[in-house]
Amino acid sequence: MTKTYSPKPADIDRSWFLVDGDGLRLGRLATVVASTLRGKHKPMYTPHEDTGDFVIVVNAEKVVLTGRKEDQKLYRRHSNRPGGLKEQTAREVRAKKPEMLVESAVKGMLPKNSLGRRMFRKLKVYAGAEHPHEAQQPQALDIPGAQDLQGTADA
How many angstroms separate the CA atoms of 78 and 148, rounded? Predict the structure, then answer.
């Protein structure tokens, strides 16, 4: 009788990956990043365990939103006080905190529980090209079709 394999915390080897968001579409970038954070690219993937890797996203301010999403997509937050709903368009968010575009897209694709919060902590997003994780020697993460997407999106 075969037994189900469940990876132990010591068996999980965490790598660091680097993604340059310059010219990439937000949703396509977020799906690959979320899948890597979950560990779905590994043979030892287990849905109820955190087997994923660390991901660094640079140039988040240069991520592309297609169509009219720049002006129509809304980011909402609430202070839990009466009248505390705040809304911002994607253009306003990009001007104030461009990292939030990528973070919110990836966070929406992760599990909505403590496991998802633990996975989200492994995501590092930076607006510019500089990041403080050179010591981890991150590898480039391959985004399928990234060559086709760069420079072809509507601005």
Answer: 38
> What whole-number distance in Å separates Cα of residue 128 and Cα of residue 141?
18
Question: Which residue in 132, 112, 136, 109 sits closest to 53, CA to CA?
Answer: 136
Superfamily of the domain at 16-144: Ribosomal protein L13 (3.90.1180.10)
Given a contact cutoff of 8 angstroms between Cβ atoms, the answer to whether 16 and 58 are in contact is: no
3-state class percentages of the chain: helix first, strand second, coil last, to nearest 5: 30, 15, 50
The model's pLDDT over 130-147, given as tens digits with 9 standing for 90+, comes to: 999 999 999 999 888 776
Dihedral in degrees, nearest 10, Cα atoms 109, 113, 118, 119: -20
Helices (H), 41-131: 69-72, 90-96, 99-107, 114-120
Domain boundaries along the sequence of the chain: 16-144
7-35 pLDDT tens trace:
998 999 999 999 999 999 999 999 999 99
